[in-house]
Amino acid sequence: MLKSKPEACEAQYRQSYHFTPKQNWMNDPNGLVYYQEEYHLFYQYHPFGLQWGPMHWGHAVSKDMVHWEHLDIALAPDENGMIFSGSAVVDWNDTTGFFNGKSGLVAIFTHHDTDPHSTKPRQRQSLAYSLDKGRTWIKYPHNPVLVDEAKIDFRDPKVFWYEETDKWIMTLAAGDRIDIYSSPNLKEWQYESSFEGPSGEKFGVWECPDLFKLPVVDHPEQTKWVLFVSHGDSPYGSRTQYFVGDFDGHSFKPSCMDHKVKWLDSGKDNYAGVTWSDMADGRRIYIGWMNNWRYANEIPAHGWRGAMTLPRELFLSSKDLLIQKPIKELENLRNEPIHMKNQLLAPDKDLLVNFQGNTCEMIVEFEFESGKDFGIRVFKSDNKETVIGYHVEKEEVYMDRRNSGETSFNEFFSSIDCAVIKAPNHRMKFQVFVDRSSIEVFVNNGEMAMTSLVFPDLFSKGIELFSNGGNVKLLTLDLYPLK
Ligand code: FRU
Fold first, then answer.
1. 267, 285 contact by CB (below 8 A)
2. Measured distance CA(106)–CA(163) in Å, rounded
3. What is the DSSP code (8-state) at residue 306?
4. Distance, CA of 156 to CA of 124 (rounded, Å)
5. In 217-372, at which residue ranges do the beta strands (DSSP E only) sit?
């Protein structure tokens, strides 16, 4: 029997293995840090409403980045304003003096308020620290610690320790560039340089930078620096770009200035992603806000609004391209798979007949000789579906959510996203994570990612493999219902 409507709706879109706030509005991930066997996830949070509002830092901890325990709000607005995005670090050597010679967590965030003189918005950087593994936070009494009166958009500090100069480095979004500062103690900051990117398209205001080092895959002796920049207004709405280059403690120099834009994700719903600090095992893992500012305040919501992407581990290819893979801890969610191999696809043959699933993972490899396109239909019913496909001639992966379910809340939502990617040896491999209102696709072992929200109705849970014309073979399929 169908449940009563409100209850059905809450369960309908509530993600089952993605992080969502217990209730009300969430945007960016903040303060990602690992400390004393816990992963911390803070997030932009409006605890009193379903739309963006006075920002707090919500908080959760996890042992595996998959199962999260919700904790009390960590930071609430104060006399310096709302608490915008920022980062957290372990101050191992007590450079701040907050920890009596021991180590502890420090959050570095933006205070946002209105300048009482000019009545313009004002953004200044501040500190808070915790003496109890992040359970309670003390705001530094001399906040703010970094001010630039000339800049209105001046926010989202991401900090790391740079061993070569024994200094903290902060990257900060400043209008349409990234400012870099250094500090011996997180309290006094010195301007080092600005990174403006290649001239040309700026894609709106820059937000949520992150600068980190990665080894090159298969050449571990070689490391490069990666800079994430989230852009408020690209043709795809809000989207994250990355640059690869070098950092010498003062400035970031991309390897190539006239490069084609490298998007971190080719879907619409992966924004403001940043990486965990102080990882014990050296992995570089990020999480993004699975949403887009163009419609974030309007997506269907029943008691809560906003979800994070899956945590993804980053690797750097020798071509300076990022590879991203869902973290291995997610494999613990897998139930017994449905397994198939070596089957020809045909228009009237549904290999997954009767399969219903809206919380599952699929690893599918196709081999094609010819044909127009092929792929996977998810959230399928007689008249609804979201299509993940590969267009052979265009050499494009696409995700078509125009007929996915509820799309009418905003014109921009109903869309097809696509991105060019070659099929090596005429083979394409998709790893797809379906949760009740999202789809994440990793193509060819993480060479490309495509992330989309969808709002299907309760009956659209079918999954189907398809090919339009030509000769397409399913090489292997593993379909795991997820716990
Ligand atoms: C990015 C962002 C940040 C800002 C925060 C406010 O999504 O706009 O630049 O700090 O959200 O909630």
1. no
2. 18
3. -
4. 10
5. 219-234, 237-247, 252-254, 271-275, 285-289, 304-305, 312-316, 322-326, 338-344, 360-368
The pairing of strands 462-468 and 448-453 is unpaired
Mean pLDDT of the chain: 95
- Kindly state if the Cβ of 399 falls inside 6 Å of ligand 1: no
Query: Measured in whole angstroms, how far is the alpha carbon of residue 299 from the centre of its chain?
Result: 18
Pairing relation of β-strands 304-305 and 24-35? parallel
Name the token pair of 461: 């849970």
Q: Which domains does the chain have, with CATH numbers?
A: 10-329 (2.115.10.20), 335-481 (2.60.120.560)
The pLDDT of residue 347: 77
Q: Are 305 and 50 in contact (CB under 8 A)?
A: yes
Mean pLDDT of the 145-166 span: 97
Choosing from 28, 91, 373, 400, the catalytic residue is 28
- pLDDT surpassing 60 at residue 315: yes
36 to 129, 231, 244, 301: CA distances (angstroms):
15, 33, 31, 35
> Would you say residue 197 has pLDDT above 50?
yes
Using the atom order of ligand 1, give the atom closest to the CA of residue 155. Answer: 10
Q: Is 80 exceeded by the pLDDT of residue 316?
A: yes
